[in-house]
């Protein structure tokens, strides 16, 4: 801008002068034209000398243009000299500009500090540029072009700093190898996922195929553990041993999901099986083997191991345990593995055939631990018993001189003072929140439970609050958390030792252990329902219709009376009543009188006539109205949450 405005002013002056000179020339030309016309008219009057004088007095246009050009050239020469002087002064001022040392990747704050300016100066310099000022923070990094822009607009000189760049580290990450030569590949077993709904026989089917008894150990629950074994697989329609089984219906329904069986022209093999009785298990195995051969599944068994972790958990006896699919190479004992940001050395490898022995070892260690705890508990109980006996002896000595009635009264007062608070009193009356702690045997179990809890949609009834979730047996820390938050502990396939259970009982903490996931969820639904306020339900005792209306005088008041006939059940004076007209309840309350003829009665049965009056005098009876006698009962509410089981 400093260079632009002086030049612009000079150009404006030149244009102004040129316009003035042009205007002057036009005026002279018009005047000359006027003179020539006048001379033509008076040619016979004037002499030739006069004409010569006139021509000399008024110069020709070409002479005027020559004068203008001379004046303009002189003016431009002056302007050029001034511009050179101004440029020289600007060059001298540029030499005196402050140098700012900058570097690539500079932040807004660092640039302002280097310029010895406020941060706002940097922001102002970047206005009306492509930079989003709103998203620019003090620690934001600036590109090279914007650093130059700020320095330029601030009237300073740029100097790039020779900062030593950080040495680029060599990539040491482990990456997958390039695809193997097809000639090196050998046939491999297929990786199979068995899917099905709850109680559709997945575990039993696995039992028959791998000859193990996971279902018996699981107590009918959902299989949360993955066993490594070899199966080929196809569509297995299970429970075909039942009389109501309809395999064809299943095949037709699968068509909607683009699963077309061979019977309907597709390429999906369907085998009718019964996992319970073992029917057609061999046919299922043969079908899956045939499918695996058609797929020609192959893998490279050479070189470093590559695979995918399916499941991991920590076992007390074996430490960290991982179930993995080896996709390339051969895994051996002693191999070093890297997964994510962790590494480990393979100490043991086992498949489903090693599990029984591993369980046997773990169960024995747990048994030894429980025996040790029981021994400690017995010692503690014996110590407490001695303390109790000593305290009882001292108490007898203290009350030995008192009468038995006095002793009983003192003991009653002490017991009343020591009476613990009820759980609801402990919770401060906040019954619309259920804090829970989830513990499972492996990550897969906990994840399955938490996924079901994610479907909870009844927070308007009772808020479900997850305090903690983890893997392993119930610990003292879990009990302390539950006591603090007045919550409930749920365990799936885990244990709670005697000491833990005793501690929980003393602290009023519920521990609920399950081996089947949907039983645990049902228990959770019941616990949620118990936190809801009771629902008041009306139970009809009797109904009567109004046949006539009249009024009686009691003192100075006229009381409306309805003549009724009991149509159903009986009317009981001490119960509650409501008046219904055209299907709408217009009154609820009590009766002040119920008479049969002239006798006051408390109960009147079906088919009998009666007269009755209400505790509301402003209510008018109409023939055809209905009187209903009912009682209210409190019923436990049930949560509206449906997890889908």
From TrEMBL:
Keyword tags: Coiled coil, GTP-binding, Mitochondrion, Nucleotide-binding, Transit peptide
A molecular-function term among this protein's GO annotations: GTPase activity
Top-level lineage group: Eukaryota
Main location: mitochondrion
Every Tr-type G domain range: 230-291
Domain (Elongation factor G-like): residue spans on this chain: 304-355
Cellular component GO terms held in the UniProt record: mitochondrion
Translation initiation factor IF- domain span: 426-524
PROSITE patterns named in the record: IF2 (PS01176)
InterPro entries: EF-G-like_DII (IPR053905), P-loop_NTPase (IPR027417), T_Tr_GTP-bd_dom (IPR000795), TF_IF2_bacterial-like (IPR000178), TIF_IF2 (IPR015760), TIF_IF2_dom3 (IPR023115), TIF_IF2_dom3_sf (IPR036925), Transl_B-barrel_sf (IPR009000)
Pfam family of the protein (one): GTP_EFTU
Compartments it resides in: Mitochondrion
Coiled coil: 364-398
Gene3D superfamilies xrefs: P-loop containing nucleotide triphosphate hydrolases (3.40.50.300), Translation factors (2.40.30.10), Translation initiation factor IF- 2, domain 3 (3.40.50.10050)
Database matches in PANTHER family: TRANSLATION INITIATION FACTOR IF-2, MITOCHONDRIAL, TRANSLATION INITIATION FACTOR IF-2-RELATED
Role noted for this protein: One of the essential components for the initiation of protein synthesis. Protects formylmethionyl-tRNA from spontaneous hydrolysis and promotes its binding to the 30S ribosomal subunits. Also involved in the hydrolysis of GTP during the formation of the 70S ribosomal complex.
Protein name as it appears in the record: Translation initiation factor IF-2, mitochondrial
